[in-house]
Amino acid sequence: MSDTRTREQDETEERTRRSESVSEAETEEQSEVQSCPECSGNLVTDGARGETVCADCGLVVDEDSIDRGPEWRAFDSAERDQKSRVGAPTTNLMHDKGLSTNIGWRNKDAYGNSLSARQREQMQRLRTWNERFRTRDSKERNLKQALGEIDRMASALGLPENVRETASVIYRRALAEDLLPGRSIEGVATAALYASARQAGTPRSLDEIERVSRVEKMELTRTYRYVVRELKLEIEPADPEQYVPRFASDLDLSDEAERQARQLLKNAKEAAIHSGKSPVGLAAASVYAAALLTNEKVTQSEVSDVANVSEVTIRNRYKELLEADGAGLFA
Questions:
Q1: What distance in Å separates the CA atoms of residue 25 and residue 18, rounded to the nearest whole number?
Q2: What is the per-residue pLDDT across 268-324, written as a single tens digit (0 to 9) for each?
Q3: For the chain: N or C, fewer Cβ within 10 A?
Q4: Are residues 262 and 307 in the same domain?
Q5: Residue numbers of the domain that contains 182
């Protein structure tokens, strides 16, 4: 037993001596490189050419050195923060832009072992205090609640991340300009999401927004008009063609039917029969009419469920679309 222990001690001492000798050799090599071997002058590194040159005599000591920095260049701090890939990127979807630290909800240590009851209780207290410190004032608490509401509604509506980012920016602007007094957080958040969806070209109808929102349709429309007016948002009227791909996908229609629906809407615009009519109703009617023209089996009830418009609206609009297309004999 003692022989084995002595052997292990000898091996440990040998490894220590080797590491010390290697570190001394590296130190001597670095000290030699720091001065010019010809005139003992100072060495200067030229990053553009990848060379190490003597500042006194001009001797090139080292060339073709490896640039261990990033491959991108930045000319100001904002561009450097944008291009840097160190750490998680900042995002407007979180009230602190993702710069704070989150304590995970898994009650396990770094090795994957479960924590004891005392450790779990301690971690829960830390999570509680962490949440309290992340929201320092009422505005941050307001923003945290609103961004969570925007993310919830966008997930339910299947909206992409760029729409969520735009909605977050709109809500931040509304909060900064004091547009919230007298209005609910949910109402302004819903209006911001509705506006951003229309700006991004992926609009959702008011009825669809109302289904996932916690505010009524009347409050939503009133708040939406107020936010757009005060923030001077440039939002074009909703185009019926923007609804067609989603309706056609939900009804499992062919590409030919989708193209036919788009053509019907273009003819309707040329005939100016789309003015004053709901874009959702026109889109639903064009999808139904296109399905008839391409001999695909789709009922008015199915289109009504997908588009959330009444069957009466579909019947009235699709006859107008077919007449404008010159296919009124199919009506």
A1: 11
A2: 888 888 777 888 989 999 999 999 888 888 899 999 998 888 899 898 888 888 887
A3: N
A4: yes
A5: 138-231
Distance CA 325, CA 318 (A): 10
CA distance 6 to 13: 11
Read off the pTM. Answer: 0.64
Residues 282 and 317: beta-carbon distance below 8 Å: yes
Q: Is 163 exposed, middle or buried (0-12, 13-18, 19+ CB in 10 A)?
A: buried
User: Number of folded domains in the chain?
Assistant: 3
Residue with tokens 């060495």: 43
Decide if 287 contacts 257 (C-beta within 8 A): yes
Strand 43-46 with 51-54, pairing? antiparallel
Nearest Cα residue to 242 out of 301, 212, 286, 189: 286
Q: Annotated binding residue at 57?
A: yes
Are both 266 and 295 inside the same structural domain? yes
Structure token digits, residue 194: 């509705």
Q: Are residues 194 and 257 in the same domain?
A: no
For residues 146 and 168, give the distance between their C-alpha atoms in angstroms, rounded to a whole number: 8
Instruction: Say whether both 244 and 188 belong to one domain.
Output: no
Task: Note whether 179 and 256 are same-domain residues.
Answer: no
Q: Report CA-CA distances (Å) from 126 to 101, 116, 123, 135, 246.
A: 12, 15, 5, 15, 45
Q: What's the pLDDT tens digit per position in 233-242?
A: 988 888 888 8
Ligand-binding site membership of 313 (annotated): no
Whether the pLDDT of residue 205 is over 50: the answer is yes
Portion of the chain with pLDDT greater than 90, in percent: 30
Same domain flag for 275 and 326 = yes
